[in-house]
Task: inverse folding
């Protein structure tokens, strides 16, 4: 899942970015309304965290333009505006949820999970591949029914692979799915994550396609 944070307050942005990345989300940041519109034009986001009081272009205008252009990502408005009229305008413009500042990061995370579940159709599917199962909603992965102690990046990597188990993912594709703009990604970062995940789920579970990338092993 890829998220976009639209927030002009750098301190709030850094806190939210760190929290979402710690949970395993790839998240990008736009600091004004115009940058948000340019980012949303790419059509790569599953969810948008949108402030209303933005420079260059108001958050409601950004949301209106996005929805009129057919943008389908879930949108959670994050704002200090507490007037009922502002909340109504945001929801009428196409927001899925509304969270007042200051907010608790755990509540934000719960609202993000709920919005993503609704976007994928009531409940996210539970993925199964051989002895591996992964439940995005509960953020649990198991092998032969035994819980796997995966850190967020390992969980995110396994989710990418198990969603399309027959596909070979290039390193650049995995970097794009696991990291947001501006995050430092070392030349061997993906290899480190793959190695770590293999230790927990079994080295045979992830195949290296030489000169191409990685995929899950085939089912017999």
Result:
């Amino acid at each position: 899942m890829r998220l976009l944070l639209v927030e002009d307050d750098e301190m709030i942005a850094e806190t939210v970015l760190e929290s979402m990345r710690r949970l395993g989300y790839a998240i990008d940041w736009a600091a004004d309304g115009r940058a948000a519109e340019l980012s949303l034009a790419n059509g790569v986001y599953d969810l948008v965290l949108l402030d209303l009081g933005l420079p260059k272009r108001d958050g409601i205008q950004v949301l209106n333009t996005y929805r009129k252009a057919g943008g389908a990502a879930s949108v959670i408005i994050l704002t200090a505006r507490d007037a009922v009229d502002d909340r109504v305008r945001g929801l009428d413009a196409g927001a899925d949820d509304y969270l007042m500042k200051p907010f608790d990061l755990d509540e934000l995370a719960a609202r993000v999970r709920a919005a993503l579940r609704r976007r994928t159709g009531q409940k996210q599917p539970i993925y199964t591949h051989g002895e591996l199962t992964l439940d995005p909603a509960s953020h649990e992965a198991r092998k032969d029914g035994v819980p796997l102690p995966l850190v967020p990046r390992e969980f995110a990597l396994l989710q990418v692979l198990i969603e399309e188990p027959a596909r070979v993912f290039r390193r650049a594709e995995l970097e794009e799915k696991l990291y947001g703009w501006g995050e430092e990604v070392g030349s061997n970062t993906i290899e480190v994550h793959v190695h770590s995940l293999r230790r927990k789920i079994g080295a045979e579970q992830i195949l290296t396609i030489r000169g191409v990338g990685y995929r899950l092993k085939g089912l017999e």
